């Protein structure tokens, strides 16, 4: 897990390493403070009792400026020795405290820098990886889950990283340094720690192993809650139109309740940590007081020595508690880290081709193509598709809902890959093209018209960031969008808002068509992209497409016969198979499915005319 976390520190190795070094220096200085305090207290006790020195004493004689050493049993403590000792060790304590504080502050600053860089890197890695995913990969994780992993999970991982470079270094260092000092200071009492430290470690280890699966379950509940929010916000107009606010509120409350229950389950174990560790810690302190008090009464040690041991006891036990707490936190974060790396280590279903060829004429050949979303030959969405589209040809695709029309065209730019067979563009298998070159040669207007925050011009420039105003207007005129754009006060600089909330469904469709045209593709795919416009505008758009790019291969998926009747040929799909191919006139004479669709639409047109 640590190796995975350190990957996010790329570019921030210097602040990370310096954080570790400064934390070590800060900790080393802290463990000397009880020793200095012990020397002061012991010297004061000997001065008050009039006893000879019981241990060697080193101090600075401020009257001469020399370092003086008094050996145990060779001198009594007079006022000069007392003052010099107090001043010497007092100054050392102040210097140590100031340096420790300085090192700690610098370590905190550098840790924050490294932590912020870590989260930036991890979010960048995730976003870059998600951008490389195929539609199938995105379907596997779900949008809500990917959002949670890029936000909440990265925050948990960042906390773990900052713990590793600071707290994980500080706690063991403090434990080691304090234990060494305790054994040097009073080995007869330090054995207490040999019992306390393993006891604390055992308690926290047991808690840590039980907490991880609970937090893993909690994050799944988070995904479900975020999915509920996202779905509700995207479909807010539908919710209001059907007056389903109460239902959505209830659904969201249930999702938040599931998160609360999952959190509560995990926290029930976590709350055991404080009482258990505190019991061991206070038990150790009581044992030290009993042993130390008896030793002081018997004249074995002085009160300053016991004070130092108490300080080391606090440092040692707090370090162990901190180590255990970190272990629990890392276990909690492990669920987030695993979820992040599940995304990062997922290989895209779509592998980039090695051929540098670009799309030239735009001919398309489907050769015995089978396709399955589940990659299962027993559950095919498309079966035995054999279709040949010449360069510059306009082909219509028609059929009932769910027969595989969108699935068919999404195979051309490799949003999905075929299960079996081949798709050739200009005679080359689409899997051999680099994804960039293939998709640069194909423009696709999807069923769901997506616009981005920004102005109309900024959205159109997605098709060609270097397009001139003349090219933009030509594309918009071909898509029948220029007139309504210029009717806005700000024209092409009109701000669309998030997702194009300022324009109607038909206007969105026309803007998306114009954006696709600006790309000047060799292949244009319109996936039911004129469904929100009237038949007259639909006809104008098709005419504009033909005039703007006469050599462009065009595929039109439509529900209306009028949208495809002038195509060079029309493909009728039924249950994932090609039922018939021909011109409008031929199919009207020979194909029952086409005849049924045509007659139903003609009947509807006549009825509407009668009503008028």
Instruction: Kindly state the percentage of residues in helix.
Output: 55-70%
How many alpha or pi helices?
Answer: 21
Strand content: 5-15%
Cα distance spanning the termini: 71 Å
Overall form = elongated
As laid out across the biggest beta sheet, the strand order is 8-9-10-5-11-12
Quick synopsis:
The chain is of the alpha/beta class and 612 residues long. It is built from 21 helices and twelve strands.
Q: Can you describe what's shown?
A:
The chain has 612 residues and is α/β, with parallel strands linked by helices. Helix content is 62%, strand content 11%. It contains 21 helices and twelve strands. It has helices spanning 2-7, 13-30, 32-49, 79-132, 135-141, 143-150, 152-185, 187-234, 236-241, 245-270, 273-297, 303-344, 405-410, 435-440, 456-460, 469-478, 482-487, 505-518, 535-548, 584-590, 592-611; strands at residues 57-61, 66-70, 364-371, 382-389, 394-398, 420-425, 428-429, 442-445, 523-527, 553-557, 569-574, 577-582. The strands form three sheets. Strands 8-9-10-5-11-12 form a six-stranded mixed beta sheet. A four-stranded antiparallel beta sheet has the order 4-3-6-7, with no helix packed on it. Helix 2 packs parallel to helix 7. The radius of gyration is 38 Å and the shape is elongated. Residues 606-612 have low confidence and may be disordered.
List keywords for this structure.
alpha/beta; 62% helix; 12 strands; 21 helices; single chain; disordered C terminus; six-stranded mixed sheet; 612 residues; four-stranded antiparallel sheet
């Amino acid at each position: 897990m640590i190796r995975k976390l350190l990957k996010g520190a790329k570019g921030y190795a210097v602040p990370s390493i310096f954080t570790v070094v400064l934390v070590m220096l800060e900790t080393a200085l802290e463990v000397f403070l009880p020793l200095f305090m012990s020397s002061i207290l012991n010297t004061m006790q000997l001065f008050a009792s009039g006893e000879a020195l019981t241990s060697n004493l080193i101090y600075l004689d401020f009257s001469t400026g020399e370092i003086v050493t008094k050996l145990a049993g060779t001198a009594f403590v007079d006022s000069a020795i007392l003052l010099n000792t107090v001043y010497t060790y007092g100054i050392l304590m102040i210097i140590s405290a100031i340096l420790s504080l300085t090192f700690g502050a610098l370590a905190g600053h550098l840790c924050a820098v490294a932590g912020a860089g870590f989260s930036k890197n991890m979010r960048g890695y995730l976003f870059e990886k998600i951008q490389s995913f195929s539609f199938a990969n995105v379907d596997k994780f779900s949008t809500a889950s990917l959002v949670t992993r890029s936000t909440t999970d990265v925050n948990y991982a960042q906390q773990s990283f900052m713990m590793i470079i600071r707290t994980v270094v500080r706690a063991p260092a403090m434990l080691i340094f304090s234990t060494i000092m305790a054994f040097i200071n009073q080995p007869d009492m330090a054995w207490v720690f040999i019992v306390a430290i393993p006891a604390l470690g055992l308690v926290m280890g047991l808690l840590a192993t039980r907490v991880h699966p609970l937090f893993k379950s909690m994050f799944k509940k988070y995904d479900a809650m975020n999915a509920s929010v996202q779905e509700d916000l995207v479909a807010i107009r539908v919710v209001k139109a059907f007056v389903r606010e109460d239902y959505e509120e209830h659904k969201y409350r249930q999702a938040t309740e599931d998160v609360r229950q999952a959190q509560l389950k995990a926290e029930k174990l976590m709350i055991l940590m404080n009482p258990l560790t505190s019991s061991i810690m206070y038990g150790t302190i009581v044992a030290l007081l009993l042993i130390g008090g008896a030793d002081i009464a018997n004249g074995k040690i002085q009160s300053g020595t016991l004070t130092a041991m108490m300080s080391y006891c606090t440092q040692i036990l707090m370090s162990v508690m901190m180590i255990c707490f970190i272990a629990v936190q890392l276990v909690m974060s492990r669920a987030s880290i695993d979820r992040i790396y599940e995304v990062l280590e997922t290989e895209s279903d779509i592998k980039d081709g090695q051929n540098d060829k670009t799309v030239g004429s735009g001919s398309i050949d489907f050769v015995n193509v089978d396709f399955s979303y589940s990659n299962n030959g027993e559950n095919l969405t498309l079966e035995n598709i054999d279709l040949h589209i010449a360069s510059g040809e306009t082909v219509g695709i028609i059929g009932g809902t769910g027969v595989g029309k969108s699935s068919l065209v999404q195979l051309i730019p490799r949003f999905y890959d075929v299960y079996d067979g081949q798709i050739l563009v200009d005679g080359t298998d689409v899997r051999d093209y680099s994804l960039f070159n293939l998709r640069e040669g194909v423009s696709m207007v999807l069923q769901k018209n997506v616009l981005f925050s920004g102005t109309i011009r900024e959205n159109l420039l997605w098709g060609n960031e270097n397009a001139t105003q003349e090219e933009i207007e030509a594309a918009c005129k071909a898509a029948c969008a220029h007139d309504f754009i210029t009717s806005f006060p700000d024209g092409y600089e009109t701000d669309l808002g998030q997702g194009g909330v300022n324009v109607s469904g038909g206007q969105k469709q026309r803007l998306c068509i114009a954006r696709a045209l600006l790309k000047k593709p060799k292949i244009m795919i319109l996936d039911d992209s004129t469904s929100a416009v009237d038949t007259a505008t639909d006809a104008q758009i098709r005419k504009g497409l033909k005039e703007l790019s006469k050599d462009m291969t065009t595929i039109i998926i439509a529900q209306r016969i009028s949208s495809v009747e002038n195509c060079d040929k029309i493909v009728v799909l039924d249950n994932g198979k090609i039922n018939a191919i021909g011109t409008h006139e031929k199919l009207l004479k020979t194909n029952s499915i086409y005849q049924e669709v045509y007659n139903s639409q003609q009947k509807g047109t006549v009825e509407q005319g009668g009503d008028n």
